[in-house]
Amino acid sequence: MTVSRRRFLALGAGAAAGGFGTAGCGSQRSLGDADEITLWTWDRSVSDELVARAETKGIPGAQGFRLSRTNIGGHFNTKVRTALAGKSLVPDIIGINSDVATYFPNQDVFVDLNDFGAAGLKSRYLDWKWNECITPEGRMIAFPMDTGPTGLFYRADLLQEAGVTTDPKELAARAPDWDGFIALGKELRKSQERAVICPNIRHVWSIRLGQLGSKFMTQDGRYIGDRDELREAFELAYRIGRDGLSAGAPEGSPDLYGVITSGRQPVGIGAVWWGLAFPESAAPKTEGKWRVADPPGGSGNVGGSFLAITKYSKNPEAAYKFITWLQSPENQVKAFTEMSLFPSSPHSFTRPEMREPRPFYGGQRTIEVFGPSARRVRTVYKSPYDRVMDPVFAAELANVESGKNVDTAWRDAQNTIERELTREGAI
Amino acid sequence: MGLADALRGKSVERRGRIAKPPPDGSRPLPGWRRYWPMYTAVSPFFILFAVFGVFPVGFSIYLSFMSWDGIGETRSIGWENYAYLVTDSDFWQSIGNTLIIWLLSTVPMIFLALVIAYALHTAVRFKAFYRVAYFVPNITSIVAMTLVLGSVFSDSSGLLNSALRAINSGEVGWLSDPWAMKVSVAAITIWRWVGYNAIICLAGLQAISSDVFEAAKVDGADNRQTFFRITLPMLRPVILFVAVTSTIGGLQLFTEPQVLFPVDDNGNVGGPGGEATTIVLYLYQQAFVFNRFGYGAAVGWALFLLIAVFSVINWRLIGGRDEDAIGTGKRKGKSRAR
To answer: How far apart are CA B189 and CA B74, in angstroms?
Structure first.
């Protein structure tokens, strides 16, 4: 229905040409002035104050260099890939989301941080997070930013109504594993008929997957996504749906917020940022009623991000100085207080700012849950092909939730994955 | 010959047509040397079109025979992308979805647009207000609008289901039921485009000479007869235009399903079961979520083929007849048989 497509293209072309004219189309490979270390990130991924300091006062430890940050709006990955494919005007540093393994096949577009002595900083950071930065070939292509250790979020007032303990320790002891969590859900139904424990069953799958010691592939490229452990996780998700403990809210829909604001989901396992994204921003009126406890079934990690230096960088040394300064334990605390980005350095867990009681959680020191939870996360190898496999399992679980037979769904998922991996040349 | 000469349009035009030797007896310059100012004047568009139009089109043909993740080296794989395409059930599902959504949106929309145009044409009061009111949805940000309508359609907290509950009829899974999802997308599409198409139809209506309507009135035709016997046939070229552009647009549907059913953390698109995944949304997912740029390009070319086929069908169904009618009487008879 876009009639004036051609004119639209022409206008766009005109604007782009104008841009070229002023920017100059030289052969410069790294973006920005000679003394500028350029950084591309998405909104709320780094401390704005620290970045502003590096922009105005220069990069600490790298004389004569200052930072220039660009906040990339939507489609971050696409824009980064476009810049990298162009091999010209590439930023010195880019932010990478939790899918860092996607870049493993193209690891040579990044510098190996070990060349700058990164190994010496290893003890400062969580092991599992550090290991995610390292390719199977042993190159360290990324540096840890924030993490997403999981916890059990719950509404103390609603639990009290149902006659369930509201003490974090006691609750964790009561629901140490998923069966206990399901039993807790059923208990809650006594006082609230429609109570659920998860927004949809894919959520159960992804949380459970994060608790396991391995994902879909081994480091030497063998597919292990058909093992019993995963089949059990798949069926666990199905069972929770069957028992009516899932709200069946589609991913990304407003219903995800609806179940939280209405109190229909009084308990939920989520990463530390989940609290901010859901109850804190969608249900501010519930302030003081939430608590967190150790998650049933063990700790896991959901989300988190990294910084990487591209090989086009005009001065990778200075870029490295900036990254290590920005992600030092004390500055990660700053990022936490300013942006709620949970640190990847356990050294910061003991800082007073991290240990402040949180009013939204009834004055609970939530770090006492998330800190140990973050330490307990296991090192898991994530393969570059996870991005192909994740959606297959998620889509089949969505089908299960709308009535598909769970055995058929599992089989279909395995077949689709075999087909996809063959096509990618992975197996 | 200089720019000043070129700007004296008349003389240039004359020379261009007849190519007489200049009066001073010298031989005529070759074309490009005579006309360079004009070529220069029109060149910006063509240069930009080459860079941003022709090149991407050509490059996407090249890309559709490659395997490329967007950063690394391209690897030639021949027809493999296309071979995979014809056996890709997700791709066929996206075609099916697109066609269903297209039918659900285009047919009622053209009908509604005609009715609205007719009403606008005959309305006596607040003409300008109504025209603006119907056109406003088309210039509103589609993303913002879809977000708002998304909460209207939302399953358990949506306005629509609340209304359904209030009148005691069952809830509909507007964002989870395979058919209702398509209806939701189609409804947003209609809402956005019906006014636009109504304005085009209105323009067509106003172009019809009032003599014809007066003649019909004198002959005793009522409103209905006038609409079906006079207005509709005379509007045929406009309807063709609306149908073709709606088809092309409908097959390229992207924003509405993309915003209504956002890409989730896993990279799935088009809502539960991918039931609202349109072809372009599928292309977007393959190329920009899964970084399969070669395959995405192949999907793009499949879409191109589909649009070409549909445009021809449209043209034969609606326009072909009209064109025949203008031609010889014999062919007119033949087309009637069809």
So the answer is: 37
Instruction: Answer whether B69 sits within 8 Å of A423, measured CB to CB.
Output: no
Choose among B71, B72, B266: nearest Cβ to A394.
B266
Provide the token pair at B133: 């009111």
Q: At how many degrees (to 10) do helices A329-339 and A48-57 cross?
A: 120
Residue of chain A nearest B151, judged by CA positions: A254
Displacement of CA A149 from its chain's centroid (Å): 10
When mean pLDDT is compared over A137-141, A419-423, B215-219, the highest value belongs to: A137-141
CA distance B30 to chain A (A): 30
Which element (helix H / strand E) includes B253?
Answer: none
**Residue B130, C-beta contacts closer than 8 angstroms, at least 6 positions apart:** B119, B120, B123
Q: Which residues of B touch A251 (CB under 8 A)?
A: 262, 264-266, 268
pLDDT mean over A198-213? 94
Distance between CA atoms of B150 and B185, rounded to whole angstroms? 10
Query: Which has the minimum average pLDDT: A304-318, B87-101, B127-141, B309-323?
Result: B309-323
Eight-state DSSP code of residue B79:
T
Mean pLDDT (chain B) is 83
- The whole-model pTM stands at 0.78
Among B69, B151, B261, select the one facing A105 at the smallest CB separation. B69
Helix (H) or strand (E) holding A143: strand A143-144
Query: B136, B143 in Cβ contact below 8 A?
Result: no
Residue B267 at interface with chain A, using a CB cutoff of 8 Å: yes
Which of A9, A102, A252 is the closest to B264 by Cβ?
A: A252
The helix or strand, by DSSP H or E, that contains position A257, with its residue range, turns out to be: helix A255-261
Do residue B175 and residue A2 have CB atoms under 8 angstroms apart? no
Are B53 and B47 contacting, i.e. CB atoms less than 8 angstroms apart?
no
- For residue A250, give the nearest of B48, B176, B291 by CB distance: B176
Q: How far apart are CA B128 and CA B149, in angstroms?
A: 26
pLDDT of residue A224 exceeding 90, the answer is yes
Q: Do β-strands A66-72 and A36-42 pair in parallel, antiparallel, or remain unpaired?
A: parallel
pLDDT at B25: 56
Q: Which two tokens stand for residue B312?
A: 């021809």
85-144 of B, contacting A, C-beta below 8 A? none
One-character DSSP codes across A364-415: B-THHHHHHHHHHPPP----TTHHHHHHHHHHHHHHHHTT--HHHHHHHHHH
Each residue's pLDDT tens digit, A225-250 = 999 999 999 999 999 999 999 999 88
- Can you give the pLDDT at residue B156? 77
Q: What is the pLDDT of residues A30-71, one digit of tens each?
A: 888 889 999 999 988 999 999 999 999 999 988 899 999 999
> CA–CA separation, A185 vs A197, rounded Å?
6
Q: B245, A3: Cβ pair inside 8 Å?
A: yes
- Kindly indicate whether the ipTM for this predicted assembly is greater than 0.90, answering yes or no: no
**CA–CA separation, B145 and B142 (whole Å):** 5
Mean pLDDT of chain A: 90
Number of CB atoms found within 10 A of residue B326's CB: 8
> Number of residue pairs across A and B with CB atoms under 8 Å?
119
Distance from CA of A167 to the nearest CA of B (A): 32
